[in-house]
């Protein structure tokens, strides 16, 4: 063994495994494994990229003032309380780095997004997994798990990979009941898919112990760009501003994200289409006896009788070039997470699941 050893906790980390994007021997692969928007990147963002390419010899903005101003304008927020990150992943990691460490605990829920645990372990903290109730975040279980050592609580709302959501009253109850030394992180990666949902912005505006994270990777269809943002109280922005790398976002990221946030027509169209197709796919799977929780996001969690059946169906779909996500890593071995694709992809998935079940030829 090499005498050069990482700090304690690092070797407990299982690396993040992303959704596959190819299948050997299959040419027309439809990727429904990473919750990407099938519309493709907004034209507005693509045009913005072309406009700034001649400035690439210069360093990018360090304060992201223009992007923050655009986000603030669209959401009616204070730009000084927004910080941008290289994907919301980076913001999750920054929160763990700044607020947790050896001897402290970071709470995440049973099926919570994998990066909460990875970032907590990287910071040297102990991740604490709290059970969910019927694949829903359980506020009472979270409150029961809080100790003197707890520093952060992460919940995604809507949640990945279940798609379930807490209502505003439940989130408010959680924020109000947490002791003052615990910061609640509301991860709103899928918030735009829920009509009229502010992702907790009103709560953040009035409380010292809540932050909200958002991303351009989902409804904005810019996962390849890597841009996320956080809205929080001033004291948190002060802390995160001290540890952020000076050029954590590049010129192309800043320009495309700014164009995309101003393109709310794209967001609206994507939301409406997603809701329509998510309902369709949920009903079609339910009709053939595959349980689906009511999802508020851009994916559905299809629950099979057994883990073997889920694995066999995933293999069948893969052989047809349809990539969906096994969520065994999220402790849901009987389930497959299927991103809501475009209409032909949704129809193909349902047809192939029916074939797998022996219902269609
Ligand atoms: N939070 C949740 C709940 C997610 O599902 C994801 C992406 N899978 C992220 C955060 C990270 O998003 P980003 O691309 O902004 O890093």
UniProtKB/TrEMBL annotation:
Originating gene: hisC
Name listed for the protein in its UniProt record: Histidinol-phosphate aminotransferase
InterPro entries found in the cross-reference section: Aminotransferase_I/II_large (IPR004839), HisP_aminotrans (IPR005861), HistidinolP_aminotransfase (IPR050106), PyrdxlP-dep_Trfase (IPR015424), PyrdxlP-dep_Trfase_major (IPR015421), PyrdxlP-dep_Trfase_small (IPR015422)
UniProt-listed Pfam families: Aminotran_1_2
Residues the record lists as N6-(pyridoxal phosphate)lysine modifications: 218
Subunit structure: Homodimer.
Alphabetical GO biological process terms: L-histidine biosynthetic process
GO molecular function: histidinol-phosphate transaminase activity; pyridoxal phosphate binding
Necessary cofactors: pyridoxal 5'-phosphate
Domain Aminotransferase class I/classII large: 28-351
Entry keywords, A to Z: Amino-acid biosynthesis, Aminotransferase, Histidine biosynthesis, Pyridoxal phosphate, Transferase
């Amino acid at each position: 063994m090499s005498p050069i050893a990482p700090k304690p906790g690092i070797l407990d980390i299982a690396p993040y495994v992303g959704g596959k994007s190819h299948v050997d021997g299959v040419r027309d692969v439809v990727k429904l494994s990473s919750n990407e928007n099938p519309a493709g990147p907004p034209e507005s963002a693509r045009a913005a990229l072309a406009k700034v390419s001649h400035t690439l010899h210069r360093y990018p903005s360090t304060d992201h003032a223009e992007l923050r101003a655009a986000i603030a304008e669209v959401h009616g927020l204070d730009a000084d309380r927004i910080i941008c990150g290289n994907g919301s992943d980076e913001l999750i990691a920054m929160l763990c780095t700044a607020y947790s460490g050896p001897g402290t605990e970071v709470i995440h829920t049973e099926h919570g997004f994998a990066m909460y645990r990875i970032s907590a372990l990287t910071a040297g903290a102990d991740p604490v997994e709290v059970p969910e109730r019927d694949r829903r975040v359980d506020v009472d279980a979270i409150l029961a798990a809080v100790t003197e050592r707890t520093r952060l609580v992460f919940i995604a709302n809507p949640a990945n990979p279940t798609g379930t959501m807490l209502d505003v009253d439940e989130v408010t109850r959680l924020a109000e009941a947490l002791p003052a030394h615990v910061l609640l992180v509301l991860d709103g990666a899928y918030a735009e898919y829920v009509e009229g949902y502010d992702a907790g912005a009103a709560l953040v505006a009035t409380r010292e112990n809540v932050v909200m994270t958002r991303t351009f990777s989902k409804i904005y269809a810019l996962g390849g760009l890597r841009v996320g943002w956080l809205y929080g109280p001033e004291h948190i922005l002060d802390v995160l501003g001290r540890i952020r790398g000076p050029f954590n976002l590049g010129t192309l990221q800043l320009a495309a994200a700014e164009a995309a946030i101003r393109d709310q027509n794209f967001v609206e169209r994507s939301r409406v289409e997603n809701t329509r197709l998510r309902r369709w796919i949920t009903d079609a799977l339910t009709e053939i006896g595959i349980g689906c929780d009511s999802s508020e996001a851009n994916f559905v969690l299809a629950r099979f009788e057994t883990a073997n059946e889920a694995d066999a169906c995933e293999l069948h779909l893969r052989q047809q070039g349809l990539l969906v996500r096994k969520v065994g890593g999220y402790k849901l071995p009987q389930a497959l997470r299927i991103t809501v694709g475009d209409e032909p992809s949704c129809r193909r998935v349902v047809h192939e699941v029916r074939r797998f079940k022996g219902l269609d030829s």
